[in-house]
Amino acid sequence: MLRQFVLSLSSGLLACGLTACKSNNETVKLKKEPKAISISQSKGYSGFYDDYFYSSQDQKVTETIERAIESAAPTNKDVMILRPMYDLYIEYKDSSHKEMHLTLTDRGEEGYLSTNNSNKETPTKFYKLSKQDLKNITDMIGDQA
Q: What is the CA radius of gyration of the chain?
């Protein structure tokens, strides 16, 4: 009886451990392979500013940013009242690209990503970054954050 309990407990812990590894951002395969990331101060929701103060082609940096984007959670919180602080330009190995705004709120405690919405009839969608992803990005930005 004790042996069955120990075996059940062991297999349960193993299953939990495997699940945790699977959900860890470091082990999730990215949908697209990023090639380069560039960041500039934002001029607002009307467009993207291409005077970049930070650029990197380092794989660890580009994958960290892409993981943050892919794992950001859609939110109904209206962040439009705040001006985006940064514009992110992500270039992919397949020659496509993505542009996103980064808005920091609550003294940098929360971060939201959004795309530029040129269609005024469709509301801009916001995606909340996890605290760890926000920390990773602001650490990269450094003194500019």
A: 19
Per-residue burial over 39-51, b if 16 or more Cβ lie within 10 Å, else e, is bbebeebeebeee
Residue 137: closest CA among 97, 101, 93, 106 = 101
Whole-number Å distance between alpha carbons of 24 and 72: 14
- Tens digits of per-residue pLDDT, 92-127? 999 999 889 898 887 778 899 988 666 666 667 889
Closest CA to 74 of 38, 133, 124, 109: 124
| Three-class SS state of 143 | helix
Q: Give CA–CA dist 94/96, Å, rounded.
A: 6
Q: Which two tokens stand for residue 44?
A: 């607002």
pLDDT in tens, 74-98: 988 777 677 889 999 999 999 999 8
